[in-house]
Amino acid sequence: MTIALARTVAHAPPGEILRFIAVGGGATLIYFLLATSFANLGYLLPTASAAAYLVSSAFSFIGHRAFTFASRGPLFGEIGRFVPLNLAGLAASLLAPIVMTNGMGLAPAYATLTSCVVVPSINYLAMRGLVFCRAQLRSGVA
């Protein structure tokens, strides 16, 4: 994974990583604030995490499509690739709280923070290589 990440980053257009961080950071902040707020309101952490992830996913798709990758690919094709990627991220954001709070006895903030770090890292690789890749291939950037 490290070699793939290094190659992906090396071939990224100027500013793409910073745009990804800005959009991803905004989506992550939305996720974190909503998940912790819902949990503080008494919702079970997996439920709070799932609801927050769905809202932040919509923000993420719009931001990454328009700003990070400046994609002009077919909207429904990109949505069709983005949704499974984010369902995998949702599964991770559901499992982390269960495993880390129930299984390991850690505070909910640690589980939420883990989701905020791990999922976006994997998402960059998948978005660049699978979701918004057609625009990159047309422009000659691999």
Q: Would you kindly provide a written description of the structure presented here, covering whatever features stand out?
A:
This protein has helices at residues 2-10, 16-40, 45-68, 75-103, 108-131, 133-139. The radius of gyration is 16 Å and the shape is elongated. 83% of the residues lie in helices and 0% in strands. The two termini are 17 Å apart.
What is shown here, in short?
By secondary structure, the chain is mainly α. The protein has one domain (21-139). Helices cover 83% and strands 0% of the residues.
Topology:
Layout: H1 2-10, H2 16-40, H3 45-68, H4 75-103, H5 108-131, H6 133-139
Helix pairs in contact: 2-3, 2-5, 3-4, 4-5
- Number of helical regions: 6
What is the makeup of the main sheet?
none
Secondary structure: number of strands? 0
Q: What's the overall geometry?
A: elongated
Q: What string gives the helices and strands in order? A: HHHHHH
Structural key phrases:
0% strand, mainly alpha, 142 residues
